[in-house]
Specification:
This protein is an all-alpha fold and 222 residues long. The protein has ten helices and no strands. Residues 27-87 form the HTH tetR-type domain. It comes from Pseudoxanthomonas putridarboris. This is TetR/AcrR family transcriptional regulator.
Length: 222
């Protein structure tokens, strides 16, 4: 005769953690997946990097990748955002930092320049420019996760400085776009075309100094 199943109140705990959607995600696995995704998307392109490859590179199962990010588009967006946050952390855009406004603008400019001239960023930019390589939805996903986040954070900083009387800017959104366009300069286009490598520290510093000085001459307090 089969023994009856004991009531829930009398069952012994199994000692295994609960599973299901409410279970906390493993942050270590998430970080490993993001790192693998950043490298593979940059090296292989969006279409060339498979979820199987990303899982293998991260040392996890494909099911684990999907449980953390849902689908490939979401993982791509998360990888782009993670790269931007890694090289342009939110602390760079905090209003009440010690030091001069020029020093803060230079720190942001240097971090942005290092990001856009990195091997991963140049590879991703080339991938985005190939017609038919990825669809418009994914291009918007990339823009919102990367450039738009940076522009919005910088625009908020500029508005605060205008309110403090440190800057005189009629249109903060335009000024934000101008700042990052200045920082990109000609060198980013040349790198994308494969005409030059990443500039040395001295050349980068001279370029950043000139751009920040120009920006402050245009929008500094009169």
């Amino acid at each position: 005769m089969v023994s009856p199943i004991p009531p829930a109140s009398r069952r012994k705990p199994s000692g295994k953690p609960a599973t299901g959607p409410g279970r906390p995600k493993d942050l270590g696995k998430r970080a490993a997946i993001l790192e693998a995704a950043k490298q593979l998307f940059a090296r292989e392109g969006f279409n060339g990097a498979s979820m199987d490859q990303i899982a293998a590179e991260a040392g996890v199962s494909k099911l684990t990748v999907y449980s953390h990010f849902g689908d490939k588009d979401a993982l791509f967006a998360a990888a782009v955002q993670a790269k931007c946050e890694e090289m342009l952390p939110d602390t760079l855009f905090e209003i009440e930092l010690k030091g001069s406004l020029r020093d803060q603008l230079k720190a942001i400019a240097l971090a942005f320049f290092a990001l856009i001239t990195s091997e991963e960023a140049i590879s991703t930019h080339r991938m985005m420019m190939v017609p038919g390589n990825i669809d418009d939805k994914l291009k918007r996903t990339f823009w919102e996760a990367g450039p738009q986040r940076t522009h919005d954070a910088f625009a908020a900083l500029l508005r605060a400085q205008v309110d403090k009387g440190e800057l005189d800017i009629p249109d903060v959104a335009i000024a934000s776009a101008q700042f990052f366009t200045l920082i990109k300069g000609e060198v980013h286009a040349r790198m994308t075309c494969g005409l030059c490598g990443q500039p040395g520290r001295g050349d980068a510093n001279r370029h950043i100094d000139a751009c920040v000085d120009m920006f402050l001459r245009a929008y500094g307090r009169r």
